[in-house]
């Protein structure tokens, strides 16, 4: 190699090295800001909560927004930064995304620093945190402006098996605000020396206090059972079910209010009250007053069995494998409608079951 060729190559190497070093020095002056500064949904009065330390954003939109599909986000990021979702560049106020589930935003700063932001959008203040999902489409609840939930854990000597007396007392209290008797008194009225209440005992108790009620058969499938109960709930009534609680799945998270919050074994006979329902995303839940709280509370201090949400297919399995009927309960002084009475079974002619 000649001296001239060597000099040329050396010069080229030095020039390239200087260029790279110069670029790196220039990069040091570029912003490393990969934060999302603000976030909202286009066209909606949304409530946003940005948690920068966790790179998490929660956005609540009005309940009139019934789906997360095709929503457009307005957001701000630092100059020179870029946001992508699934490798698609995001333009504030323009790009549509499906927020039916959490969406991951990758924000790349001007100096190529990256951060992943999780965005949750919901149309309620509770469904996401309670484990139900993002978007309520339908919600019905037969509520009262007074307390009518009872915890069987506070019902005396036979608390462990007092789901029947407790559920029956809840039903009567729902139907009659002036009712003042307790689940322990119900226990002392029937099977005062212990033992599982039967569905016939519930019938007797409701009759004793002149509460309009009827036993109606449930469907042969989860969908037909859902529709039978939904019709009654839509009409402002409640139901008392006797089920094998082992068919209700366990909750995936202790902070959720979906699914079962206690352990069971096969043939775990149990009573609870069905008081409403919610359709959230693609899942239909029955809203339950489950008496089996035993003092266990949610983060906000409410008892775990109060306003619990069980999936409709689990409720079907739990009834179909124990007692294929429910008690429909109406408000005291208001007879049940003819359609419900026409479907009613004669309590003396059906097989009754017991539950603890």
In summary, what is this structure?
By secondary structure, the chain is of the alpha+beta class. It has helices at 3-27, 127-130, 163-175, 183-189, 199-208, 222-234, 312-320, 338-343, and strands spanning 36-41, 47-51, 56-60, 71-77, 82-85, 88-89, 96-97, 103-108, 114-122, 136-141, 197-198, 213-217, 238-244, 269-280, 283-289, 306-311, 325-329, 354-355. It is elongated.
Describe what you observe in this structure.
The chain is an alpha+beta fold. The protein folds into 3 domains: 1-28; 36-123, Sandwich (Immunoglobulin-like), CATH 2.60.40; 140-355, Cysteine proteinases (Cathepsin B, Chain A). The chain has helices spanning 3-27, 127-130, 163-175, 183-189, 199-208, 222-234, 312-320, 338-343; strands at residues 36-41, 47-51, 56-60, 71-77, 82-85, 88-89, 96-97, 103-108, 114-122, 136-141, 197-198, 213-217, 238-244, 269-280, 283-289, 306-311, 325-329, 354-355. Strands 10, 12, 13, 14, 15, 16 and 17 form a 7-stranded antiparallel sheet that branches. It has a 6-stranded mixed sheet with strand order 2-3-9-8-5-6, with no helix packed on it. Helix 3 (163-175) packs across helix 4 and helix 3 runs parallel beside helix 5 (199-208).
